[in-house]
Specification:
The structure holds two protein chains of two kinds.
Chain A: H1 10-26, H2 42-70, H3 96-101, H4 104-128, H5 132-158, H6 182-214
Helix pairs in contact in A: 2-5, 2-6, 4-5, 4-6
Chain B: H1 2-26, E1 35-42, E2 47-53, E3 62-73, E4 79-90, E5 95-100, E6 110-118, E7 136-138, E8 149-152, E9 157-159, E10 164-170, E11 177-181, E12 184-186, E13 189-190, E14 195-200, E15 211-217, E16 223-231, E17 238-244, E18 249-255, E19 269-274, E20 279-282, E21 288-292, E22 300-308, E23 313-321, E24 332-337, E25 344-349, E26 359-367, E27 370-379, E28 382-387, E29 395-404, E30 415-420, E31 432-439, E32 442-449, H2 454-457, E33 463-470, E34 478-483, E35 488-492, E36 498-505, E37 514-518, E38 529-535, E39 538-542, E40 552-558, E41 568-573, E42 579-582, E43 592-600, E44 606-615, E45 628-630, E46 637-640, E47 655-661, E48 673-676, E49 682-688, E50 695-698, E51 706-714, E52 726-729, H3 735-758, H4 760-767, H5 779-786, H6 821-826, E53 835-837, E54 869-871, H7 888-905, H8 960-972
Parallel strand pairs in B: 9-16, 38-44, 53-54
Antiparallel strand pairs in B: 1-2, 2-5, 3-4, 3-6, 6-7, 8-10, 10-14, 11-12, 11-15, 13-14, 15-16, 17-18, 18-21, 19-20, 19-22, 22-23, 24-25, 25-28, 26-27, 26-29, 29-30, 31-32, 32-35, 33-34, 33-36, 36-37, 38-39, 39-42, 40-41, 40-43, 43-44, 45-46, 46-50, 47-49, 47-51, 48-49, 51-52
Classes of the chains: A mainly alpha, B mainly beta.
Organism (chain B): Balaenoptera musculus
Region (Disordered) (chain B): 954-977
Subcellular location (chain B): Membrane
Chain lengths: 230, 977
């Protein structure tokens, strides 16, 4: 890179100087040396993944408390009722083939929309909770879920995907209809928690997949200089 | 009016027969038949509502009628309810009736019909029913959706303890439907092909979120459920009362009881209603409510508190006069003012109530948590009171509460304030006592005083002044100032009498002086000592007064045990006292306390009156004396324990028990009695009842016997611990005599042994010479008996030696002789030995024949005759062969052995001495034949037993060797014959 020692000719000196200038000119373009550049979506995907796992853990404890609050059979471990009511809840279960056929943007969009809805229902749950302790736990979980939504939005923005816009008038609201019996309402609560659990599990998988996809290959960082003119 | 009534009745009576007639003739329904029957269902309340009219009535006509209502379930023929409903009917008036179904209405279709009858007293014979109306169906099932399974009633709210019927409707008509109450299966009654009902009795509250009941098809997956909300029963508010603090606002409070709130039902609400003013207010809190007093000076109030939830209402009322419910606010700004040693002024303020109202305030003074003064003060706003009779330097708490004067209802809350009164001079002289002793020849007085009690100190005692005044000679007063925590001082005085004044000082001044007079002579008066008994309360000490002019008495003692430094305690008593109880928390059982009683004379001098010792509680001795055993004889020994101190024991020692264990089977010695020890062993016991007798002689014992003894003291409580017995053995009765005899004997034997040892050579010669006397040999008798009865001992005198051959070997050599090899090699003689064979017969006299031969032990070169000595002839056999030679077999064996050994170890040519025994038989004399005749006692090198052989027999053929020997012997000396 540097001029060799010795006594070069006068014409050579100018050539060397031009070479040095060219190198200096190209230095900021070398990715490995550019420390102030955008790190990409990798860290935010990782962060989102971590948050998902944390929420999974948090939900485990919250669901236990809430289902006990509902009473049997909802707190029984083998209770697996048909999905009565709760039609408006976004379903996390999807055919594997369909899921595989989704692209990153669709997956992220589905995640974002699902958590937006779930968060809304969850807030309704919080309003109905009779005990202060349960209300605290639910509020804490809602805050965490709000954080996850923001995190997904961040990932989508980093990847250049637009956020899904809610259609006017389709804002989900937690309004149990008058025909909705208390038992069905409890079923809805049960399914809300179950769907949340499934969504979190699915999101963890989605973000793990995305994380691996976005990870640059290990040997990709090489210093490649094109020394034109030599 | 009466006229009108008559007309009406006439009209009705005229009308009714007409109608009856019409109905009978025309068979038409009665005109009073219920019409327009409509049935509606209220699912929430599970009620059927019926409404109908009776059109047939005349205008403005009112009749009392009875309507019989029939209700059927599932089908019209299944009548489940019949009820007669009586009411007054008007023309075109809609009538209502409702019925609550136990079974949820959704689970079954219901059919209703009714008929009517006039039931009016104004009509004389009205008693027949109308026709039934047509059946009306009430079917709530039509409104159900398409789900396969429904459970009813939905979200029912009931009170605790109710009975609830639950049913399910299945559209799939399956039998395998099970229902669960809170996860526990319940069993019900099948009402229809698709309907089953379950009766839940006495339901209880489980959670606010309701009790879950659900049914499911076992394998189909269909599921339906309800939530049954069980509310707690609303209680009547308890302890409802209202009061005012300022006559402006009334505060009503109550105990609400349990909360009946569920997620289906809010908590019960409380409404306060005042009947006089007709006002009401909805209370925001569960247990209290404020009511603004009206400005129109309403005095009496009648409040009703109504508690209400969805299921029930409860109310409670009170009636009161406002001025009788005044509860003043807590007074404030309570402070002490002008606090002195014995008085202080307290000031405080109260919130005014209305205009010119007075309050009764109660001021209380507390000392150490107890109320000691109580004063009532009537005030308007400012209160003030002078508290007197206070103790100096004392902490007090003043507290105030007030009540409405016009009508006492309640005291206000208390307000408290702490304060301390000022100090005053100590009010009492310190209690002083002294202890006198001589130190280095000078009387030394230790002065002790007790700290003044708080009541008398009146402040913090700073120091004590001790003033010493010489009473015998005028001198300057000596003043000592001792800082306060000190409780004693020491004064060294001379032989004079002194008067000592002690005063305690605090910030304000000195206390009165305590005076004590001390004589220069310590005067260790000897007084009688007594005992004092301790009780639970202490020691009850009494004494006899000596002189009549005593001004008081002092009892002195030490609080601790004797072995600890004395913490001097004393108690001052009045002049007329002759007894007291000394109690102290420091007294312990088993510790000896010594009390000294002094009499205080008019001159303030103390004289020792009595000494007492006692135990709070006597204990058994904790240890036993160290017993020394002495003077042991065969019949007695002495025990002594002189070092044992009876003073420092946990009880008064009353004596000692001496235990003695004799050998088995032996009787107890006299003065001992048999007793059984705690470990069930029997032994002898002797009791010494004098605690000062510390020696004991155990007598009448058996000699050479083992005895075990043990000494323990005893008090009134018991004896000391059972220690190990000490074992002794009484000596033999004659042992001393034996010692006197045996010792000299042993000595003599020793002397003899020493002498024998020193003279062992001489003894040997005398007692067992090397060459024995043949006459004494047993061989002789042996030979005599077996071989030759004529065999006799050869007398040397009878034997004429022919010749003794001495082979002179030129070179000196050591001759190994078996058995004595060592001695031979060790002893090397330089001269040949010349041995005279001495006759052993008694009649031998004069020089006998001398056989000079070369002994094996002699060096041939030293064959000096001059060195010849007389030796008793003894076989040169090994010592161990000497004894057994007495028997012929042994003899022969020994000889053979010698021979064989010689063959083995002595070269044939080396044997330089061939001495032929005179005993040798003619055949055995030949040396050459030796190997072939080993039993023959023919030796090549040894001395042979010399025997006298009769001449006839001794004609041994001369051998070469023997002739040579003889020649040599002859040539050497004639004194051998």
């Amino acid at each position: 890179m540097l001029p060799a020692a010795g006594e070069p000719a006068a014409g050579d000196s100018w050539g060397m100087l031009a070479c040095l200038c060219a190198v200096l000119w190209h230095l900021p373009a070398v990715p490995a040396l550019n420390r102030t550049g955008d790190p990409g979506p990798g860290p935010s995907i990782q962060k989102t993944y971590d948050l998902t796992r944390y929420l999974e853990h948090q939900l485990r404890s919250l669901a236990g408390t809430y289902l006990n609050y509902l009473g049997p059979p909802f707190n029984e471990p083998d209770f697996n009722p048909p999905r009565l009511g709760a039609e408006t809840l976004p379903r996390a279960t999807v055919n594997l083939e369909v899921w595989r056929s989704l692209n990153d943007r669709l997956r992220l969009t589905q995640n974002y929309e699902a958590y937006s809805h779930l968060l809304c229902y969850l807030r309704g749950l919080n309003r109905q909770a009779a005990t202060a302790e349960l209300r605290r736990s639910l509020a804490h979980f809602c805050t965490s879920l709000q954080g996850l939504l923001g995190s997904i939005a961040g990932v989508m923005a980093a990847l250049g995907y637009p956020l899904p816009q809610p259609l006017p008038g389709t804002e989900p609201t937690w309004t149990p209809g008058p025909a909705h019996s208390d038992f069905l309402q409890k079923m809805d609560d049960f399914w809300l928690l179950k769907e949340l659990q499934t969504w979190l599990w699915r999101s963890a998988k989605d973000f793990n997949r995305l994380k691996k996809k976005m990870q640059p290959p290990a040997a990709a960082v090489t210093l490649h200089l094109e020394a034109h003119g030599f | 009016m009466a006229l009108f009534a008559v007309f009406q009745t006439t009209f009705l009576l005229a009308l009714l027969p007409l109608r009856t007639y019409k109905s009978e003739v025309l068979s038409e329904p009665l005109p009073l038949t219920p019409e327009s029957l409509k049935v509606s269902v209220n699912s929430t309340r599970q009620r059927l509502h019926l409404q109908w009219t009776v059109h047939s009535l005349a205008y403005h006509q009112e009749l009392k009628m009875v309507f019989q209502i029939q209700i059927s379930r599932f089908k019209t023929s299944n009548v489940i309810w019949v009820e007669n409903y009586r009411t007054t009917v008007k023309r075109n008036r809609v009538l209502h009736w409702s019925w609550e179904s136990k079974l949820p209405l959704e689970c079954a279709a219901h059919f209703i019909r009714m008929r009517s009858m006039v039931d009016d007293a104004r009509i004389p014979k009205p008693g027949f029913w109308s026709n039934w109306s047509s059946w009306e169906e009430a079917d709530a099932q039509n409104s159900l959706g398409h789900d396969p399974l429904f459970v009813f009633p939905k979200d029912k709210l009931v009170e605790e303890g109710s009975n609830v019927t639950i049913c399910y409707v299945s559209r799939i008509h399956q039998d395998n439907i099970s229902c669960y109450l809170e996860g526990v299966q319940i069993y019900g009654e099948r009402l229809d092909r698709s309907v089953s009902a379950f009766e839940l009795k006495n339901v209880s509250f489980i959670r606010k979120k309701g009790t879950n009941v659900f049914c499911k098809v076992d394998q189909g997956g269909a599921l339906g459920g309800i939530v049954l909300f069980v509310s707690k029963v609303l209680e009547e508010p308890k302890d409802f009362s209202c009061e005012t603090q300022d006559l402006k606002t009334l505060t009503c409070t109550w105990d609400p009881g349990s909360d009946t709130g569920l997620s289906k039902q809010p908590s019960q609400s409380y409404t306060l209603f005042e009947s006089f003013s007709g006002k009401k207010t909805l209370c925001k809190h569960r247990n209290w409510c404020n009511w603004q007093v009206a400005q129109d000076s309403q005095e009496t109030y009648n409040f009703t508190l109504v508690a209400e939830n969805y299921l029930r209402k409860r109310s409670v009322s009170i009636l009161f006069n406002l001025t009788q419910r005044v509860h003043p606010m807590t007074p404030y700004n309570l402070f002490p003012k002008n606090v002195r040693a014995t008085n202080a002024t307290m000031t405080w303020k109260v919130h005014s109530i209305g205009n010119n109202s007075t309050l009764l305030c109660r001021l209380e003074l507390l000392a150490e948590g107890k109320v000691i003064q109580q004063h009532n003060v009537s005030i308007k706003v400012n209160g003030e009171y002078l508290l007197s009779e206070l103790e100096p330097d004392t902490e007090y708490v003043a507290r105030v509460r007030c009540a409405y004067t016009n009508h006492f209802w309640k005291w206000s809350e208390l307000i408290s304030q702490k304060f301390n009164t000022a100090e005053a001079a100590p009010s009492e002289a310190p209690d002083v006592w002294r202890n006198m002793k001589m130190v280095s020849g000078h009387p030394t007085v230790s002065l002790f005083w007790k700290p003044l009690s708080k009541v008398h100190a009146n402040g913090k005692i700073l120091f004590y002044n001790v003033i010493v005044e010489n009473l015998d000679k005028p001198s300057r007063l000596e003043v000592l100032s001792i800082p306060a925590p000190a409780r004693s001082t020491e004064l060294t005085l001379d032989q004079c009498s002194y008067q000592i004044h002690v005063t305690a000082h605090n910030n304000v001044g000195p206390s009165p002086a305590s005076v004590i007079v001390i004589s220069g002579d310590p005067g260790n008066e000897e007084v009688e000592s007594g005992r004092v008994n301790g009780t639970e309360d202490g020691f009850s000490v009494s004494w006899k007064p000596q002189s009549g002019d005593a001004t008081g008495y002092v009892v002195e003692w030490c609080d601790g045990p004797q072995d600890l430094p004395c913490v001097l305690q004393w108690k001052n008593l009045g002049p007329n006292t002759t007894s007291t109880v000394i109690s102290s928390g420091a007294f312990r059982p088993g510790v000896r306390y010594n009390f000294r009683i002094y009499e205080i004379s008019a001159k303030r001098m103390a004289h020792l009156l009595e000494k007492k010792a006692g135990y709070l509680e006597e204990l058994a001795p904790s240890d036993n004396p160290q017993v020394v055993m002495s003077n042991l004889t065969s019949h007695s020994f002495t025990l002594s324990w002189k070092d044992y101190s009876t003073e420092s024991q946990p009880g008064f020692i009353q004596g000692y028990h001496v235990y003695l264990k004799p050998k088995a089977g032996e009787q107890c010695p006299p003065a001992f009695e048999k007793t059984v020890l705690p470990e069930d062993s029997v032994c002898c016991k002797h009791t010494i009842d004098n605690p000062e007798q510390k020696t004991f002689v155990v007598e009448n014992l058996q000699p050479e016997s083992i005895y075990e003894f043990f000494v323990t003291p005893y008090t009134s409580v018991g004896e000391g611990p059972l220690d190990a017995f000490t074992k002794i053995t009484t000596p033999d009765e004659y042992s001393h005599i034996l010692i006197r005899i045996i010792l000299p004997m042993i000595f003599c034997v020793l002397i003899v042994m020493i002498i024998c040892y020193l003279k062992r050579q001489w003894l040997k010669e005398k007692c067992y010479p090397d060459i024995p006397d043949p006459y004494k040999s047993s061989v002789l008798s042996l030979i005599k008996s077996k071989e030759n009865p004529h065999l006799t001992i050869m007398n040397v005198n009878d034997c004429v030696p022919d010749a003794i051959e001495v082979i002179n070997k030129p070179e000196g050599s050591k001759i190994q002789f078996l058995g004595t090899r060592k001695s031979l090699t060790e002893t090397e003689f330089t001269k040949p030995a010349c041995i005279y064979l001495l006759p052993t017969e008694k009649n031998y006299s004069g020089p006998g024949p001398c056989i000079c031969f070369e002994n094996f032990t002699y060096n041939q070169a030293a064959s000096d005759f001059a060195s010849c000595g007389h030796f008793p002839v003894t076989p040169q056999a090994p010592p161990h062969q000497l004894g057994p030679l007495t028997s012929p077999e042994n003899l022969l064996k020994a000889l053979e052995q010698n021979y064989m050994n010689s063959l083995g170890e002595i070269p044939a040519g080396e044997a330089n001495l061939n001495y032929v025994s005179q005993l040798a038989s003619p055949t055995s004399g030949d040396k050459d034949s030796l190997p072939t005749n080993p039993p023959e006692p023919a030796l090549c090198s040894e001395y042979k037993m010399q025997m006298a052989i009769p001449l006839g027999l001794a004609s041994a053929p001369p051998s070469e060797n023997s002739s040579l020997s003889s020649a040599t012997l002859l040539g050497q000396g004639e004194h051998y014959r």
